[in-house]
Amino acid sequence: MPQTLSGPMLAPLSGGAPKQLVVLLHGYGSNGDDLIGLAPVWRPTLPDALFLSPNAHEGVPGYAGGYQWFEPAMTGDRVAGRQVGTRLAAPVIKAFLADLWTQTGLTAGDTILAGFSQGAMMALHVGLSLPEPLMGVIAFSGSFLPADNFGAPDLPRPPVCIVHGDMDQVVEPIHGEDAHAALVAAGYDVRYHVSHGVGHGIAPDGLAFATDFIASLAQK
Predict the structure, then answer these.
(1) Neighbours of 43 (CB within 10 A)
(2) Which of 40, 53, 101, 197 is least enclosed, having the fewest CB within 10 Å?
(3) Considering the domain boundaries, does residue 4 fall inside one?
(4) Strand pairing class (136-140; 160-165)
């Protein structure tokens, strides 16, 4: 049975019908109520955007109101576990996006897919594997687990923003560096920012960098 996602949303600041969509994917053990907090910061930059932050499809045992896109590997090869997890969760997010586009009449080109931590892994994995190019992809404190079609010559290459703290002990900073290098090598337009002295979180300078990235997309 297909899994459906739901969570908080915020209507366009303009009060009109949405012209863009911003989908926010939360991290492990969190929920949509957390990342929807980015919407008030970005609404002035995209006043015609509908913001949505769906709860992931799996609950986390022991976390009241907490969800996960996939169960992280706590032992062994954690990167391999993330690779398996992103592949298993990707169809759920792709179905959510397809339904969203059908319901709104908007398209991939009108959509920004953003995420934090595990949600950033999903945003990069899904956002860079779609047959139609997204408006943009934003990854805070994540890593890049490429889909099987990554690097295909006919695969769209949407602009990407990567933000990572250099003191992150949950998803180590090297993952942000590696993602940046891999995407640049594959021909993507990547904006990359390191927040100095910052751990696993979104600092004001990183948020401002992502906001500037969104502003550049809005001008196209």
Answers:
(1) 18
(2) 197
(3) no
(4) parallel
- 46-59 confidence digits (pLDDT tens): 999 999 999 999 99
Count how many Cα atoms sit within 13 Å of the Cα of residue 197 in the half-sphere of its side chain.
2
Q: Which residues form the domain of 74?
A: 9-218
Inter-CA distances, 92 with 55, 150, 194, Å: 11, 19, 30
Answer yes or no: is 180 within a domain.
yes
Please give the radius of gyration of the chain, using alpha carbons only, rounded to the nearest integer: 16
pLDDT, tens digit, 9 for 90 and up, residues 165-209: 999 999 999 999 999 999 999 999 999 999 999 999 999 999 999
Q: Is the dihedral of CA 23, 15, 40, 162 positive or negative?
A: positive
Residue 2 domain-assigned (yes or no): no
In what side-by-side order are the strands of the sheet with 111-116? 9-10, 49-52, 20-25, 111-116, 136-140, 160-165, 190-195
Contact 133, 157 (CB under 8 A): yes
Domain count, the chain: 1
First to last CA, the chain: 39
3-class DSSP state of 96? helix
